[in-house]
Amino acid sequence: QVQLVQSGGGLVQPGGSLRLSCALSASAFTLDFWHVGWFRQAPGQEREGVSCTSKGDGSTTYVDSVKGRFTISRDNAKNTVYLQMDSLRPEDTAVYYCAAVDPRIGSTCRLKQYEYDYWGQGTQVTVSS
Predict the structure, then answer these.
(1) What confidence tier does 56 reach under pLDDT thresholds 50, 70, 90?
(2) 3-state secondary structure labels for all residues of the chain
């Protein structure tokens, strides 16, 4: 059984920063076993992949719209993945979800939500003045 518990989020002005956390608990495997991704869904829009981090070397992938502004990181000792979001824009407003996938899909994570097996509860991020 795998559980992902998210924290962080909230209301921030344009140009501000927020950090999201995703704590993983699993009966059999620790965080370093999993690829972990962040996804978001804005009102009336489909869920999109934002960033992911691969097990092993911790390599990262970002959607173009957040490159240079968002940073994903993992702390395997704390079983937690973070999404640091800087220079936030109103278009970043969405519900953000973390998700984990068994690395059987491949050695590198991908931003394909259908591949992910376990999901966090979601957290609202609102960027507004």
Answers:
(1) confident
(2) CEEEEEECCEEECCCCCEEEEEEEEECCCCHHHCEEEEEEECCCCCCEEEEEECCCCCCEEECHHHCCCEEEEEEHHHCEEEEEECCCCHHHCEEEEEEEECHHHCCCCCCCHHHCCEECCCEEEEECC
